[in-house]
Amino acid sequence: DETEFRNFIVWLEDQKIRHYKIEDRGNLRNIHSDDWPKSFEKYMKDVNCPFKIHERQETVDWLLGLAVRLEYGDNADKYKDSTPDGAKNTDNTAKNAEPLINLDVNNPDFKAGVMALANLLQIQRHDDYLVMLKVSFRRLTQDAIAKASQSKEGLPVALEKHILGFDTGDAVLNEAAQILRLLHIEELRELQTKINEAIVAVQAIIADPKTDHRLGKVGR
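The structure corresponding to this sequence follows.
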């Protein structure tokens, strides 16, 4: 939505990036102006965004990365000693190392779920439902590896154009995080494409009513 997009840009500038002085944000805040795209284009140049005005997804991701970096810079003391939740309690980590331990294998819902998954993956039935579940996991893992091994053609990406938004202290980890973010964006694009295709398919159906001249009306 165009209005939401413009409000989002204004919010980022007002609350996080704050590149302009308050009195200089008037043109950007005037989201209903016909000249807003020009103001936004100037703003992108002023913050040194490497993308063009029509590359919205890339621009949004870049601006978010800039906002995260500035937020971290303003609160470095607060975040520098932060520890991931999963690393705070080693006991919980050990307990969760084997997720199948606490499963109730006699639960009817569990059995029905395992059978449905086994049928879907065409796995031979076994008296031990836990064995079937583990085989299903193994099959899913193999399928995932096979899919990941399929090569995809694409254009080279300049990682230096994408600000990560935080620094791990390790150049290799920073580059890996940038790659993961770009891969996530690609997955979101594929999802959006599928959603758009579904919407078009539904619209094609509802926009093509059948006409029955004998009844003198249009409809199904």
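Residues 159-207 form one domain.
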